[in-house]
Amino acid sequence: MRTASIHRKTAETDISLSLNLDGAGQAAVATGVGFLDHMLTLLARHGALDLTVNAKGDLAVDQHHTVEDTGICLGQALKQALGDKAGIRRYGHFTLPMEETLATVAIDLSGRFAMVFQAAMPTEKIGDFDSQLVEDFWQAVAANGLFNLHVLVHHGRNSHHISEAIFKAAARALRMAVEPDPRMTGVPSTKGTLSN
Question: In whole angstroms, what is the distance from residue 100 CA to residue 162 CA?
Fold first, then answer.
């Protein structure tokens, strides 16, 4: 079972997260940030992973700590659930249309963090959600999951659609990267390891 459970408690947040990479797309998410809950539910469904998140954060201050710390926990869970990464495809990419938006996400589960995020948000807010937190969330995931993440929004005019396209494309790319490769024995690297 490629599963992980993470609990992170700080003076700003208290988060419990569980992940099953070989799930059925089921999500039970309650972060107190409605838009993040929506995006995480999409991530689970399109990534074919089971995800449970319970987060309590200092939302009276800002949404930032809750969003970023949830990303930290997800990245740590991905790293834990993947183990030594033997037999996986390692690379994943997906180009996804969402209404007028087109987004590409590419992932390399290399054991090293790097991120390029080229996605301009037309508005500062999506409802009461700070649109810049989409980038902060994914930076936290990739930095703590130790993988390369490239996000490119080719075009789009609606910040909700852009965010949704990024999460869905990331889910599909991640699904591809973690998928077992029946032709691959051992770790998919000439170095023999995919850890930092």
Answer: 9
